[in-house]
Here is the input.
Amino acid sequence: MERIPEPLQALVRRLGRLPGLGPKSAMRVAMTLLKWPEAETRQLGESIARLRDELHLCSRCGALTETDPCAICTDPSRNDEQLCVVSEWDSMLTLEEGGFFKGRYFILGGLLSPLGAQEEGQPDIQHLESRIAEGQIREVILALGATVEAENTAAYLRAKLTRRFPGIRVCRLAQGIPLGAEVKFMDRETLRQALQYRQDF
Here is the structure.
């Protein structure tokens, strides 16, 4: 990249850190942005800045929100005894769109990496334990999907939570979810049945 101007190099480096964008894809995106009208590229930059300024994580569940706590955590009609644990915010959105779960949520922010590797996106298990320790939760529903990482995380959480909170039911979604699938890609009826027929394990 010696002959590429420094501002373009810097942008390509940053874009290349986004999921699914390698150096060549990042360069294509950067070149596309250069072809946009100046006002449009400035609006994109402002939107990114607003994203960081106006959105933050809910201190209760970890969801992206403009208010803290978020609307779901402050909704008095929700069941305080059920806690549905998902890996990412978009999985929670998928469950919420179905309209069939009326409990609370907790977003782990990732799954356990194979072989215990420590890297970005590791689950916030300590915060989950603190939430359960408050004493209202009676059932923890692990809605993590059916990937290898999800299965490993679910098994680890089950062992840890049942040991620390022996009176709490720890269950998982029913296995109508195909092996290797993620919650956020499931259709509503599959998710509804998976929740309705959730299993102890």
